[in-house]
Amino acid sequence: MRPKLTMQGWRLFIFLVIAFLVTPLILVILFxxxxxxxxxxxxxGFTFDWYRRLFANESFWPALTNSLIIGFTVAVxxxxxxxxxxxxxxxxxxxxxxxxxxxxxxxxxMPALIIGIALLVFFKRLLDVPLGLPTVILGHLVIIxxxxxxxLHARLATFDWxxxxxxxxxxxxxxxxxxxxxLPIIQPTIVGAALIALSISLDDFVITFLTIxxxxxxxxxxxxxxxxxxxxxxxxxxxxxxxxxIGSTIVALSVSRYRG
Length: 260
Prior knowledge:
By secondary structure, this protein is an all-alpha fold. The chain has a single domain (58-256), classed as Orthogonal Bundle (MetI-like fold), CATH 1.10.3720.10. It is built from 12 helices and no strands. It has helices at residues 2-31, 49-56, 60-89, 94-104, 106-109, 112-127, 133-156, 162-169, 174-203, 206-211, 218-228, 233-256.
């Protein structure tokens, strides 16, 4: 009887934790369709007016454009660098590869605020370059690159290299063997890693806020709206951001079949 009660207790605890995490997201989505301007329950009706107002906002489209430019650029650069790094790591001995992975993973374990301030000082005080989309892209690469390398390294660690060796024995150059053998096999993982990079980039606020200078992305636009008003278009914008980030993550996990 006691083990059964213990299991039920754990299930209840897990359910409460999931409810605590998911309920605010559900409320944001519901309020984005609520006809009342007051963000409160009960809901008074269903409407798309807040989305119409959001799309009519002149600041929205530049912010969306900036987010997509940054996200797709980071996704492409991170998978190119990540693939090359993973190909190099799999040639190391396991102990050496583990140490390098631990070193490369350092940005994943550091607070985003510390990384953002460090990047701001690096760009402005040391390099004296103007802040903008290029500095945001470089900042995102710092925090996203370790994820991409880890995903691709996990895939290449179980890769059957005898296929590449057979192609080389038949006269294929290293580049041709990579293009015709390695790349097609790991392509789903590369696409999945790129989509995960895109998701993280779209959702980032701290690094973006500290390195963008002028201009906005979707997360910084949300921050600006929250500071200046309680306009319900905030809920519509937050819902759109949720759909973009969570949707790309779900697609990435299904495409890459990556399970951490």
